[in-house]
Design goal:
Elements (H helix, E strand, L loop, with lengths): L55 E3 L5 E5 L8 E4 L1
Antiparallel strand pairs: 1-2, 2-3
Length: 81
């Protein structure tokens, strides 16, 4: 007569299937930084008074600016180079 195993116990010689674990969820890598490297010179504001005439500066967005004097002006201002 074949032996009968109690409930929850495998029968002798029976193979049991092991449950495979769920794959672990990986976190999304951080997004790359989108900031620009610092400007290579002083940060200036377009149209602001400046000194010395001919000087070079950069806006916070990285636009190159030059300190120039136009005809009729007494004070040079930062203008796009």
């Amino acid at each position: 007569m074949p032996s009968v195993a109690p409930p929850g116990v495998p029968a002798p010689g029976a193979t049991t299937k092991k449950a495979t674990p769920e794959p672990t969820k990986t976190t999304k890598p951080p997004a790359p930084k989108t900031t620009q490297p610092p400007a290579p010179g002083p940060i200036v504001h377009p149209g602001a008074f400046c000194s010395p005439e001919g000087g070079i500066g950069y806006t916070s967005a990285g636009t190159k600016m030059r300190c120039t004097l136009k005809a009729g002006e007494k004070q040079p201002r930062w203008r796009a180079a």
